[in-house]
From TrEMBL, chain B:
Signal peptide boundaries: 1-20
Source organism of this protein record: Prevotella lacticifex
Domain TonB-dependent receptor-like beta-barrel, first and last residues per copy: 285-858
Listed InterPro entries: Beta-barrel_TonB (IPR000531), Beta-barrel_TonB_sf (IPR036942), Plug_dom_sf (IPR037066), TonB-dep_OMP_SusC/RagA (IPR023996), TonB-dep_OMP_SusC/RagA_CS (IPR023997), TonB-dep_rcpt-like (IPR039426)
Keywords, alphabetical: Cell outer membrane, Membrane, Signal, TonB box, Transmembrane, Transmembrane beta strand, Transport
Descriptive protein name: SusC/RagA family TonB-linked outer membrane protein
Gene3D superfamilies xrefs: TonB-dependent receptor, beta-barrel domain, TonB-dependent receptor, plug domain
Similarity comment: Belongs to the TonB-dependent receptor family.
Protein location: Cell outer membrane
PROSITE patterns linked: TONB_DEPENDENT_REC_3
KW Transmembrane (keyword) present: yes
Main location, first listed in the record: membrane
UniProt lineage: Bacteria, Pseudomonadati, Bacteroidota, Bacteroidia, Bacteroidales
Amino acid sequence: MTTHIKRTISRLVLIAVTISASTVLVGCLNEDPRDRISADEAYGTADKLLLNTVGTLYNYIGGNADSQGLQGTVRGVYDFNTFTTDEAMIPTRGGDWYDGGFWQSLYKHSWTASDNALYNTWNYLYKVVMMCDQSEKILNERRALLTDAQLNEALAEVRGLRAMYFFYLMDMYGRIPLVTDATTPVDSIRQSERSETFRYIYNELESVAPSLPDVHSNLQNDYYGRFTRPVAYFLLAKLALNAEVYADDDWTDGVRPDGRTIMLDVDGQTMNAWKACQAWCDKITAEGYELESNYAANFAVHNETSRENIFIIPMDKYLYANQFLYLFRSRHYNHGAAIGQDSENGSCATISTVRTYGYGTDSVDKRYAINFYSDTLRVDGKIVKLDDGTPLVYMPLAVKLDLSGDAYEKTAGARMSKYEIDRKAYSDGKLQSNDIVLFRYADVLLMKAEAKVRNGEDGSAELNAVRSRVGMSPRPATLKTILDERLLELMWEGWRRNDLVRFGLFNKAYDQRTPLDNEQTGYTTVFPIPEDAIYHNANLKQNKGYSD
Amino acid sequence: MNKNAIITLTLAALPLCATAQHIKYTPATSVLADTIAGRNGSVDVIGEGRMNKGLVINSLDAIAGQAAGVVTTGDNRMAMINSVRVRGTTSLTGGNDPLVIIDGVYSDIATLSTIYPADIESFAILKNAAETAPYGSRGASGVIQVTTKRGRAGKFSISYDGNIGFETVYKKIDMLDRNAYLATAEALGRYATDGGYNTDFQDAITRTGFVTNHHVAFSGGTDEQNYRASIGVMNHNAPLRNDSYNNFAAKVDLMQMAFDNHLTIDFGVFGSSQSNNNVFNLQELLYSAATLNPTFPNHMNAAGGWDKNATASQINPPGALLGKKNHNRNQNFGSHIRLKADLGHGLTAQAFGAYTYNSNENAKSAPTWVWAQGQAWRGEMKQETWLGNLSLNYHKRWAARHDINVTALTEYEATKQRGFWTSVKGFTTNALGYDNLTGAATVPYGLTGSGYDNPKLLSFMLGAEYSLLNRYTLNVNARADGSSMVGKDNRWGFFPSVSLSWDVMKEPFMKRQTVFSRLILRTGYGLTGNLGAISSYNSLNMLLPDGAIPWNGSTAVTYSTKHNVNPDLKWETRGTFNIGADMGFWHDRLIVTAEYYYSRTWDMLYEYDVPVPPFTYDKLLANLGKMSNKGLEIGASVTPVQQRDMELNVSMNMSFQKNKLISLSGNYNGENLTAADITSIGSLNGAGFHGGNNNIVYQIVGQPLGVFYLPHCTGLTKNADGTYSYAIADLDNNGRVNIEDGGDRYIAGQAMPKMFLGTNISFRYKDFDITLQVNGAFGHKIYNGTALTYMNMGAFPDYNVMKDAPKARIYDQTATDYWLEKGDYLNFDYLTIGWNVPISKTARYISSLRLSASVNNLATITSYDGLTPIINSSVVDNTLGIDDKRSYPPYRTFSIGVSIGF
């Protein structure tokens, strides 16, 4: 009997030992991350806090994947503002560039709410908005680490950037939700009317501008690539210039508010939109920007010294991952081979564009040769040959939307030049060192000229300053000459859709395009809210004219 | 009571015990005997006799087609098996690979592929929850227990197994040759470059493959102490050039008893080194070989580069592509020790410890003629795992009718993973490859990095089995797993299971009948957990490097979270119910087993689409959805002839599977989140297919995973210029054809087979035997994207086309159901003829000698039009169900083998 009990006890002891040993091990389930850092580490000092709240936002101005970045990449903001217009297109070239009809749909305006790139672009823009919200929240939570001046400047920069992203969102999608708090729950997200968003962005930029550093950020100084005061002024001028569009809540009813009656504030003074635009332009001039004597210098491999560029995406093939695909995807295959790089033989100028440049006439605009590769191509002085031994000749007037089977299938169209080719580029020519120009001073002069004309004043001085820089003869400033000048000067810079919408031409017939059946209402002047965005948030309402 | 009996019974109950994986079975040689042993309980055990013959160079090949519900996919017996699915796909994001346990050590399919089939005693395949539940989270997708051979009491023995084989490609795609290519271009009035050659690039990238395989094992010992040691080398040059595999493995196992046999010590060491030279990008190589202008030469030009067809931007000269390297080196070391103490009175204690080390090195390079500046990559992942467990087992039998067996177990596993990778570019020479990275001019930001993680898993388990009258058995199990990777509040998962079996034959009323020789009914239900989708730190709000920016005059790296953080991550759970029967008739001349299962996965981990705003990123890893799987598995084995000199066995297994994605929505933080009902999984690649509406295979809520969702083609329409296009139906009758998702598309079939079949016929006459294995899959479809691409005259002459294309005059590459075909097939996997050479009993050194000759991949019966219907039809990834210019050229293997026992 006793041995029995003893055995039972020894068994119990054994079990107890097993269990207690196991209990000790429970503590061993804690993680010990070594290849990433905690919030306290990332935001623990003033320097780190600024770097990881403000600095981190600059990783997203450029991009290295489809639909990411404001420029340089494909199927994103830039493409939706360029290939949807009379400026340029990517024609279908046989087996190349059909891509499910995507590029054709841009030119024809037959995009739909289910377009994937449109959804990815929405997600990209709002991703940065939400990161700004997050940065603002963290800066406020850890404000004790910063001096008042530091905090003020950092918050201004974050809010300024956020306002810029809202600007792109409003311009593309019309009615958008203004989400300015990182902790907003899904069901309290509502779209604002476009005019409300417009006012919000305008006021936000105006109120942060004085706190932003007064620095030319295109230069390689401490603020290289950053959202400084002149950048805010540029956006304010852009907003004022487009006030008739942005203040219009129903863009399908054929009526727009009059810019002369839209009153905006500039430094405490109230004035109409055209005057306000001019005022912001003048403030930029006062910052010391001027036209470079050499137009092409703004787009050179080393364009960091430009006196004209205002806001750029810093590019350095050795340091940053941001890509620049536009030269690569435009030039012919043999063109790429001739410069030792690769190519995709895609985008080209439309016929109406090259006609505007006077192509085929006696007086060709001086910028034509800078902005395009046209006719017989020479690289390093030598004629580039096609595989059949004949010279590669780009045919600017042979362009049509579907070139498949055409004799000029592979060679139709004037190709993008503008940016100097970085012969030492990486990634087959996708990684160049030219900074990508987002905002520049020539645009400021043209904005001012246009604001003046729209306000019944004479804008010839500004218009002709831009023209004389490239040695072109003066023209009287009219809406027509200004719109043409914007094409001549700002070709390949991503502003054409914005311009055409403002001039009321976006939904009209142009180049080889005939409008869609019901396009006269103007519903295509904004893109549809992406179907997937609505699917995930039923509060979002589709824009007028687009079926859900 | 007899101690041996206790141990045997303990082992029989061992689905209970988490690591001591010895399913009871007696080594046997005949197919039938294995089947009998294997059906003891519902665990399917594949012993040596049932393993595949023919040329088996990967241990998983040994079970292909042998077990119902187990599907292995690889590129036709290449050294690296891509995946194994047990009862299909049960999770969306990860953890669908079954758990592999090798001699009690948790392992994986890659490691198993380095073990020699000749070293394996048996595979046990655990599918039902009651069997896998003891493994908790790890066993969620089934368990493959591998028992390697041990030394046996008896005299010292040496065995040698060797094979040698040749592999030849027997089918390629019929493309235009030089003359037809030039003639077609001329007839169309299109300019085509004449490079002056007539090259069949498909031939140029292939060769006669060669396999050699040698394996030697030594063993000996007594009942109290024995050992086995083995060493093997394999070399495989596959039929695609630059595609080769080498494996070297060595293994030693020792067993020693002590203290009057109360303590048994098992010790094992295993090491392997595998070196794989893979094709850099199979699709790029095969697409290029098929469509490059056939007048181009297959050699370099005078300048030391390759002539590229400038107008065909999506392809490259195959010779240049073969200059790309993609090499993998995989080194494994593992050791384990098990102490088993018999404490008397039915009590057994066991301690087990294992350490494994795995190093996986990947090195790649792309020469300057493929990438303008040349590029090279190096990367390494090292993993160390410590595993320890303690278990106690109590077994008691009384009154000759009650039998109880209780096991308690605790287990801890810690893994340390360290990774390092770099990529450089800017080479002026191709001679260095990846062997001297300083030959490159730049090391771009973001392409060099390292990582570290250290996940841990702690488990407790209690299991009990009670058997009454040897007839009624109840098995109850409860396991709790705690993982460091799960959100803090959801760390522990609880996974119970219960099963019942009834051996009807033991009932008195069965005594009189003579039809049944066995009849066992069984059923069970259990829960398993799955964390396959979660990686370390997923639930933590940590910051990672985000990118380099100019900052205050220099370059700085910033940090951000880079994903939406979900602190509430928890275990994905799956419940499985099964019911089945094992039946033997006429002294087991016919054996039939049948099993039905139904499983449901909930709290399914998935990267859900979430709205931006308010989320920052558009994906959130969360536990929301539901999925179900059900199926029927039937195995039959019949021995129509069984005589001294002659025996014929036919065995067959069929598994029917049905999967359904029930829901992808649920509640997250009080908000109802939904993921898209229709999500594309796979699309077509190649010229003109970038983006657009080229999605083919989808994941659609309410449907099986992987369905074809396509526009309907009503036929070819003749265009004004005499060419043809695919006519697309306006399915929603809205007067407009819209081939976007949600537009004029319909569900046109499923990518995963509804039924799998494995058949083995073996016949022995005296010392000769012949075995034929036939596997098949039915009920699924394949999208022939290869034909869609190669029949499109719109791509000609930039890209070569198929012989029939110029006549068909299709100028269209819109993806419709026109090229969706039935995927059913029957594949004659191998035929082996063997001769067991009679050895005189008095022979001094040789105890056995077997010679064999095999043909693998004999023939395929199918209505599918493409190269082969054996593509990926089981793993949910972007290749599922789509034959898109990447099918490895089908090849046949002829081999001879010899096995000698000394």
